[in-house]
Design brief:
368 residues; alpha/beta; six-stranded mixed β-sheet; five-stranded parallel β-sheet; 15% strand; elongated
């Protein structure tokens, strides 16, 4: 979500991160408690690190990067957030200990495969490209500075907003899951404070429209939190990487497994082909692992394959998670080769297109 102004736009999640860190300590005095830190899930480690770097550069002394919580050298102040970027060597106990900190806002950010240990009972937010783009702008730094100035200069008004949230219309109308009531109240208060700041330079109508849009976006994020336990996010990430691979890997081929010609056979040998039938996409093993490289920053190949099977993204019946499939070569001879069998319904584009709808010449000709 963004909102229009003479300053531009700020995405919902960066605004929530800043507001939550700066206001957490005060909000607790008015019953708006945040009982755990945030977990952000990025597409890959590079995106995660860039977000942290840009956010810190734009906000000065409100945040810091925590490299290890076991060997902590920095302890943020109570109006700050601390970012811990997940790595393979960071244990579940260390991440749990970090997220339970009460004296600042702890934020664990995962780039790649989402760790099992962070799945349940967490405030988990999907970090998207729009969030990264938002924090890279000078607009973000300028607007956050003004928001901070408003908070410091209007403490009584901020406290009044916190005190009124539980009996506000939005507070009274909550009908979501009981376990999300606490985070709902807290984020509602953060949005209300920003709306109070917004009212100083905008009309009442504009401030109300901002707050309503903020609440709608908040409800979307809260509704998506259970998906992390159900595997939907891994499916989304893998589908995104598969579609992106056509821009990163030269001469990628998508072909009907029943129509193997010389071009397709060469692509099979060079592991740059995705075959398909009515139910599955068939990936050569090396190709799928190459596509999944961004997911392997926080987990091993074995962990990734296990998760793909457990979350019903691939079908398999072997220890290495591949399955043999008989294909008929250009000479009419059957060959049995190993592939990853990926369920087609997990690989749809955001527009519900199949790979063959876009990249298979036969399919495009039939559509015409």
């Amino acid at each position: 979500m963004g909102y229009g102004s003479e300053f531009g736009k700020i995405a919902w999640l960066p605004l929530v991160i800043y507001g939550s860190s700066f206001l957490r300590y005060v909000a607790a005095d008015y019953g708006c408690k945040l009982d755990d830190g945030f977990v952000l899930v990025a597409d890959n480690e590079a995106q995660a690190r860039r977000f942290v770097t840009e956010y810190i550069q734009k906000n000065g002394d409100n945040d810091c990067l925590i490299r290890s919580w076991k060997k902590r050298r920095e302890y943020p102040a109570n109006y700050c957030c601390g970012f811990l970027v997940m790595k393979k060597y960071i244990t579940m106990e260390e991440a749990d200990d970090f997220l339970s900190e009460k004296d600042f806002l702890p934020i664990v950010i995962c780039g790649g495969l989402f760790p099992d240990c962070l799945k349940s009972s967490r405030y988990i937010f999907r970090l998207r490209e729009a969030d990264l783009e938002s924090v890279t702008t000078q607009t973000f730094a300028t607007e956050i500075k003004r928001f901070r100035t408003f908070i410091i200069g209007n403490v009584d008004e901020v406290c009044r907003i916190f005190a009124e949230q539980k009996t506000s219309i939005a507070g009274m109308e909550y009908s979501g899951a009981r376990e999300q009531r606490s985070i709902y109240n807290f984020l509602l208060a953060v949005g209300a404070v920003y709306a109070g700041y917004w009212r100083r330079t905008h009309t009442e109508k504009e401030a109300t429209e901002f707050f309503n849009a903020y609440v709608r976006e908040m409800l979307k994020y809260l509704a998506h939190m259970p998906e992390f336990a159900g595997g939907d996010v891994l499916s989304e990430m893998l589908a995104s990487l598969v579609w992106e691979c056509f821009f990163k890997i030269q001469n990628m081929v998508v072909a009907d497994i029943e129509k193997i010609d010389e071009e397709v056979e060469a692509a099979i040998r060079e592991q740059r082909v995705i075959l398909y039938d009515e139910k599955f996409y068939y990936f050569p093993p090396a190709l799928l692992m190459r596509i999944c490289e961004p997911l392997l920053q926080t987990a091993s190949e074995t962990d990734l394959k296990r998760r793909l099977r457990e979350e019903k993204i691939i079908y398999c019946n072997s220890a290495d998670y591949t399955v043999k499939k008989t294909i008929v070569n250009v000479y009419g001879m059957p060959e049995r080769q190993r592939f990853f069998w990926v369920y087609k319904n997990t690989m749809l584009s955001p527009d519900n297109l199949r790979l063959e709808d876009v990249y298979c010449q036969d399919e495009k000709e039939e559509a015409q």
